[in-house]
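Q: My hope is that you can spare some time for a protein that puzzles me. Underneath my words sits a plain record pairing an amino acid chain with its backbone structure tokens. Those tokens are not coordinates but codes from a learned vocabulary of shapes. Thank you; the sequence and its tokens follow:
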Amino acid sequence: MATAIDPRSSSVLPSNRLISLDVLRGITIAFMILVNNGVRNYAYPPLEHSAWNGWTPTDLVFPTFLFLVGITIVFSFESRLSKGTKKSSLLFHTFRRALILFLLGLVVNGFPYFPLGTLRIYGVLQRIALCFLIASVLYLLDRRPGSKVVIVVVALVGYWILMRWVPVPGYGFPCRTIPLLDPNRNLVAYFDRHIFPGRLYEGVRDPEGLLSTLPAVGTTLLGMLTGMWLRSQRSPSRKAVGMLAAGILGILLGLLWGHWFPINKKLWTSSFVLFAAGCSLIALSICYWAVDIKNWKKGWTYVWLVFGMNAITAYVFSELLATTLSKIPVYIGAAKINLSWYLYLKCFAGIPSHHLASLAYSMSFVALCFVPTFLLYRKKIFLKV
């Protein structure tokens, strides 16, 4: 569904709209495209995911997006409910949107050949769809913050209990016969191998697996709690300070819990949820202070608004473009390479450092993805499912 809205017009954007949310969403999706499109083996180190336990700045991108999804649910639903929209209508829209997001994820995974026998079922958009669906239903059932706090605690503690205290069939007991969070011998990987054998991103495991969706929902609900905080009657400065303080607390709690349940993005551990949410809160508090309190909106926010107002469109376009470039053959003499590698060799390989060359390629790819989102923005078209 295409919606025509001009984000620069005060007539369609009420004065209480938080532009900082759109700005941070734009920064997040641009960073997501950046880290997904480096040159293999030469990726700029900060743009790589942590190999297993631990974290890099790249590991914080996806949870920040889910965190913002939680905030958006609150603002969107409350706006529509205030206009008289029935909960049943919102529920229908929620299921419809989640289904479309999930199907888009399958399109991204299968494009262009769609190998049905080995098609990966999990994915980024699929996880967004599930978290959006579950969090939305929970919000429609009970809009009080207390219930969300309880669910977050149950989800994070419950996930820790499952990963720490439940034996992995065929392998043994964590911390006794097998290491805690062993890459291949953990409960998440075990379930995924039995649910979707031959369809996992890393062969024997998947970073968007089914069981790890449980703590990912916790990330979304923490965003939802933040949305409730932002919609409260507190002063803007108090909201900013509150988010900053909560962010620092989240980071400290995540690091502390990480001593017993390591920070791990691929398993989306409970400590990772707290740590990443803390980082998201700090980033949002800074954006909120700069954009919505200090009103620093001229110039620097434009690029991020363009990306942020069509975030899913930008992401899907980037994934399909990257796959297309990797599938088009190019011949250099008798050697056959793909168009992506050819463009890198012709345009960026002359940069002395392979890592900097990869970074330049990634940044150019982001700039290319900016073009269609810019055209949509200028036409006042924002694609929403």
